[in-house]
From TrEMBL:
This is serine--tRNA ligase. GO terms for molecular function: ATP binding; serine-tRNA ligase activity. The keyword Ligase applies. GO terms for biological process: seryl-tRNA aminoacylation. PANTHER family: SERYL-TRNA SYNTHETASE. ATP binds at R164, T165, E166, V180, H181, Q182, F183, E251, I252, S253, S254. PROSITE patterns: AA_TRNA_LIGASE_II. CDD domains: SerRS_core (cd00770). It comes from Glycine soja.
Length: 343
């Protein structure tokens, strides 16, 4: 089931909803985030990197793992804390979540925990999996319950680490921080009445667009085509930001309306208030309206590695330094620029 407005076809059939900003103009050769990260001593992927780390990520954990260092660590913390503070202003309750969940919950949320091409890491000899997104544990937060109508909508903003196998992901387009096995993410999630889910879908994409505009990014919002929708999604909007070093737009966020796909599997219902009020003086079970399934929505407020790519590449300076966008500076102790380390 898809929204009537969803374009039919593959990813190329997706339509542009909005284009924001313009790509920065540089008067010097543009570097990608890997080169900037190496020169500014911000992260390390490879044992061969001349960074003088005792251990490199590829030795300790394998490929597509990384160490963040120095200002990159502060930048991650700043992105997380700034994003949380901004989303909380819009009435979202902050959460941190379990990062191990039962495989049955993963499946009920619409992910395949143990399929051939799964993106989920499963724990051997157990029924647990590492989460690929906080959407999964937040979706399970109210599993097998009937919510009071007065509680809706329930809006959460969750911080977690995410783990993905990224099976089949290879090539220059996915190198560096763009596609990794472990990363930090701030995720928005809403439980609401069925008739309100399209309204909250618009609210979620507006929040994302406001956040990315505040950071001065050039991006486009897409209404994704039917073949690009995951099993739970009725409609999905993606945000792709311009990454100068990669010379392309890269996905940094998405917002999905899953209607009752997840709530039916997770057993999350509510009892409509208008009918729940008994007309007779004596309230009984027979007076109560039958419970209905809520609708669920999720949206990425900040996927940290891809935001770091955007900030490093868009705010690079001719002298090799990188400016910090104004909104993040208070969350980095007032630091306004990442400069080369003196020898």
């Amino acid at each position: 089931m898809t929204h009537p407005d969803v374009p039919i076809g593959g990813e190329d059939c997706s339509t542009i909803r909005k284009m924001v900003g313009s790509s920065p103009k540089f008067s010097f050769p543009v570097k990608d985030h890997l080169q900037l990260g190496k020169e500014l001593d911000l992260f390390d992927f490879d044992a061969a990197a001349e960074m003088h780390l005792t251990y490199a990520a590829s030795q300790v954990s394998g490929s597509k793992f990384y160490y963040l260092k120095n200002e990159a660590v502060l930048l991650e913390m700043a992105l997380v804390n700034w994003t949380l503070s901004e989303v909380m202003k819009r009435g979202f309750t902050p959460l941190t979540t379990p990062e191990l969940v039962r495989s049955s919950v993963v499946e009920k949320c619409g992910f395949q925990p143990r399929a051939n091409n799964t993106q989920i890491y499963s724990i051997a000899d157990s029924d647990q999996c590492l989460i690929g997104t906080a959407e999964i544990p937040v979706g399970g937060l109210h599993m097998d319950s009937i919510l009071s109508d007065s509680l809706l909508p329930l809006k959460y903003v969750a911080f977690s680490h995410c783990f993905r196998t990224e099976a089949g992901a290879a090539g220059t387009a996915t190198r560096g921080l763009y596609r990794v096995h472990q990363f930090s993410k701030v995720e928005m999630f809403i439980f609401c009445r069925p008739e309100e889910s399209e309204h909250y879908h618009q609210e979620l994409i507006t929040i994302e667009e406001d956040l990315f505009s505040s950071l001065g990014l050039h991006f486009k919002t897409l209404d994704m085509a039917s073949e690009d929708l995951g099993a739970p999604a009725y409609q999905k909007f993606d945000v792709e930001a311009w990454m100068p070093g990669l010379e392309r737009f890269g996905e940094i966020s998405s917002a999905s309306n899953c209607t009752d796909y997840q709530s039916r599997r997770l057993g999350i219902r509510y009892r409509p208030a208008s009918e729940a009020q008994a007309t007779s003086a004596k309230k009984s079970k027979g007076n109560l309206a039958p419970p209905q399934f809520v609708h669920t929505l999720n949206a990425t407020a900040c996927a940290v590695p891809r935001m770091i790519i955007c900030l490093l590449e868009n705010y690079q300076q001719e002298d090799g330094s990188v400016l910090i966008p104004e909104p993040l500076r208070p969350f980095m102790g007032g630091l306004s620029v990442i400069a080369r380390k003196s020898l």
